[in-house]
Structures are given as structure tokens and as C-alpha cells.
UniProtKB/TrEMBL annotation:
The keyword Transcription does not apply. It comes from the Bacteria. One of its GO terms (molecular function) is kinase activity. Zn(2+) binds at C133, C136, C153, C156. It is an enzyme of class 2 (transferase). It comes from Pediococcus ethanolidurans. This is Adenylate kinase. The lineage of its organism: Bacteria, Bacillati, Bacillota, Bacilli, Lactobacillales. Keywords: ATP-binding, Cytoplasm, Kinase, Metal-binding, Nucleotide biosynthesis, Nucleotide-binding, Transferase, Zinc.
Length: 219
């Protein structure tokens, strides 16, 4: 089987993290979420985390000079030799060009870009209803994806959950605006390279995954 080196793209709340959990469970590829890396650094109060927080709290992108370096270091690690999946990177053309250089240097070419398409009107409701397990990071939604037993994480059985700071309504609005503007050129970039597969993200979580499975099984 071909090594899967994937990019998962989609606007905030499109379902990148939700689908990533399923892809990892089936295809055992290494999940690299720049958002998760920044949140871990903020939680640990590292220098990079303190710097990133200024941008994330406003719903803006962390500068490419910081983000590109983090991804390059992560892709250079040996566990990605058997495949990786980038979630939330690249987000602009500069990052896409930087990624091209990194993957060429490391000889780990991207073989598919999965774009989860959702109309922007749906996203605010998705983000305002999201909550996350404090222990394992599993993501839920109060209406669309609640835990099977109320108040208990399906994955690890813990009972404490949190909402992300950047899911506040003011921040969400800017995140969606910033990313919408950058998304179209990125879609064109990967379409031109014949790497783009767009799936309909505005259907049940399992139906979105079925579309993704079809793409990945064909590679
Ligand atoms: P990041 O953490 O990547 O945030 P994001 O892109 O805004 O995306 P989200 O994680 O909010 O949404 P998601 O698509 O993963 O949706 P989820 O599956 O959780 O980045 C955070 C910040 O870090 C950025 O704003 C930026 O500042 C910085 N950053 C990150 N990468 C960067 C980069 N490359 N360059 C510069 N800065 C960067 O689903 C959302 C909710 O919907 C959940 O509640 C879920 O249960 C529910 N749901 C999912 N799918 C469905 C469905 N099909 N139907 C109904 N509900 C659904
Ligand atoms: Mg996410």
C-alpha cells in the first residue's frame, strides 16, 4: 500500500479534528494538528505558546515564520516515515509553498489533499456547541455528537470537559473570515496539482467519513 501523506483542510469547525480521529483509527497515520501543537504550548506556558496565544486569542493566524518551523521539525521525525496527516496546515499559499519545499527535501511527497467543504453559516453553531474531553482531547458537540453516556467521555471514560477559548463568538467570527479569504487560493493551488479531493462536510459525521474512506482506499 502507498504511504499516506495527507493534508486535511477545511474552515474552522468543518470537522477536521473529528474526521482525523477516524482516519487515524483506520489508517494509522500520524496526526499533526498545528492547532493542537499551539494549544499544548499555551497550556505549558512555553515561549512559543505565549507568542502564539496573542494571535490565536484574536482568531488570527500565527506568523508563518513560527508555524513553518514547527511543521518542518515535526515532519523530520521518523514516525512520519510511514505516513502523516496534516490538520490545519497549510492555511495560506506561503505555507503551501513552504510545505512543498519541506516534503521535497525530506522525500515525503503529499499524495492527497482532502478538503472538507461546509457552508460558512453552519460553522458558528458547530463551534459554539463543541466541547472537548479534558483528559484525552476527544471532541463532542452538544447536539450533533454528544457522548453515548451523558457526561462521560466515550474514549477514556473521564467526566471533565472544556470549551476552547477561541470558540467565543467574537473570535469565531474573525477565524471564519480570515480562513475563508485564504481558502480559495489554496484550493486552486492543490487543484492545479491534481491532489485535491473535496468531500461534503455538511452531512452526518459517519457519512463524511465514508466519502473520505473512498478517497483514501483508492490511493
Ligand atoms: P485549529 O485548532 O486548527 O482550529 P480551526 O482551523 O479553527 O479548526 P477547528 O479545530 O476549530 O475545527 P475542526 O475543523 O477541527 O472541527 P471539529 O472536528 O473540532 O487552529 C486554532 C488556531 O491556531 C487558529 O485559529 C490559528 O490562530 C492557529 N493556527 C493553527 N494552524 C495554523 C497555521 N497553519 N498557520 C497559522 N496559524 C495556525 O468539529 C467542530 C464541531 O462540530 C465539534 O463539536 C464536532 O463534534 C462537530 N462536528 C464535526 N463534524 C460534524 C458534522 N459532520 N455534523 C455535525 N457536527 C459536526
Ligand atoms: Mg481541529
Amino acid at each position: 500500500m502507498t504511504t499516506l501523506n495527507l493534508v486535511l483542510m477545511g474552515l474552522p469547525g468543518a470537522g477536521k479534528g473529528t474526521q482525523a480521529q477516524k482516519i487515524v483509527a483506520e489508517f494509522h497515520t500520524v496526526h499533526i494538528s498545528t492547532g493542537d501543537i499551539f494549544r499544548a504550548a499555551m497550556k505549558n506556558g512555553t515561549k512559543m505558546g505565549i507568542e502564539a496565544k496573542k494571535f490565536i486569542d484574536q482568531g488570527n493566524l500565527v506568523p508563518d515564520s513560527v508555524t513553518d518551523g514547527i511543521v518542518e521539525d515535526r515532519l523530520a521525525e521518523d514516525d512520519t516515515n510511514a505516513g502523516f496527516m496534516l490538520d490545519g496546515y497549510p492555511r495560506n499559499l506561503e505555507q503551501a509553498n513552504a510545505l512543498d519545499k519541506m516534503t521535497a527535501k525530506l522525500n515525503k511527497p503529499i499524495n492527497a489533499v482532502i478538503n472538507i467543504h461546509v457552508d460558512p453559516e453552519v460553522l458558528i453553531e458547530r463551534l459554539s456547541g463543541r466541547f472537548i474531553c479534558k483528559n484525552c482531547g476527544a471532541t463532542y458537540h452538544k447536539l450533533y455528537n454528544p457522548p453515548k453516556v451523558e457526561g462521560t467521555c466515550d474514549v477514556c471514560g473521564h467526566h471533565e470537559f472544556y470549551q476552547r477559548d477561541d470558540d467565543k463568538p467574537e473570535t469565531v467570527k474573525n477565524r471564519i473570515e480570515v480562513n475563508t479569504k485564504l481558502n480559495t487560493p489554496l484550493i486552486d493551488f492543490y487543484n492545479d496539482k491534481k491532489l485535491l479531493y473535496t468531500v461534503n462536510g455538511d452531512q452526518d459525521i459517519d457519512d463524511v467519513y465514508k466519502e473520505i474512506q473512498k478517497v483514501l482506499r483508492a490511493i
